[in-house]
Predict the structure of Pseudouridine-5'-phosphate glycosidase.
Amino acid sequence: LADAGLAASRRTLRAVLRPGAVGAPYRGRVTYEISYGDEVADALRAGRPVVALESTIISHGLPRPDNLRVARQIEQQVRAGGAVPATIGMLAGRIVVGLDDAGVTELAERNDVAKLSVRDLAPAAAAGAHGATTVAATSAIAEAAGIGVFATGGLGGVHRQARDTWDESADLAALSRTSICVVSAGVKSILDVPATLERLETLGVTVLGYRTTRFPGFYLSDSGHPVDWRVDSAEQIAAVLAARRQQGVHRGAVLVTNPLPTDEQIDPELHDRVLHEALERLDAAGVTGHDVTPYLLSYLHEHTGGESLAVNVRIILRNAELAAAIAVASADAG
Ligand code: PSU
Ligand code: MN
């Protein structure tokens, strides 16, 4: 387990995982229950604000070596906002809610980290794999752990070729059945944005615009499409979450979309040119399935001269800040 980067401070809340048995065939005493970082476990018990963070962004969404630095910055941002960060991922088959720095480093630096959506969690655990969780998997785990707020960068959605490929991120279906508040900057225009919005509507995902009535396009402040509900403060978002609980109608996610200020968005001309190239290359390279999104993300990072990375980091930190404020406002509201 030392190799898995599990610090001694790590412990399971309810069950004991037999040391050395990770990845071994089920022999009656091995459990795959969620492990918690101490600080997260304490905060959850005490009802203090916690923000879930995904790890696919670290392993597959951002280039090395910036990914590790950014992963730490996101956690710091959540702390600065008065909440406890719970970065979620899998180490040697164990789901960990609240990875420590050694665990985050493993996921940032290893070459054998699997990208895990919800359906992958059980087989990856049984195989003793290291894995990074997507928005779909992170949401599902956060809900199971009793964490109500989750900060990410961009969401997965409907891909541009979906009419032929049926490639729609499992993030959307997961958000339709998972009770969680997700803060994102909308979706990247590597996706079919209007189709993604239609699917979010069909799937019953509540979409809020934070200080906007326009759905953000990640690098671009405005995707060109409207959002029905505008909210202007973390308290107002906490009120939406409280209303859902009290109404007893809270299956599915609340997606809070947090746009970049227009003077911070990526140069639209550079954006359109590189996006066009990336989509052409994707086609030519014959990339499919769960490799599509990482391929497009790394193409953008490599071909915008660092601009997309800088903007990406800015977006994530802003989302972490807002998520912490929502978690604090929700805890204050009881
Ligand atoms: N979009 C981004 N950055 C990301 C991702 C998506 O702008 O890092 C990651 C997230 O973890 C998301 C996943 O959940 O990719 C979606 O992958 P797919 O399209 O294969 O479902
Ligand atoms: Mn896909």
Remarks:
- The chain has 13 helices and 14 strands.
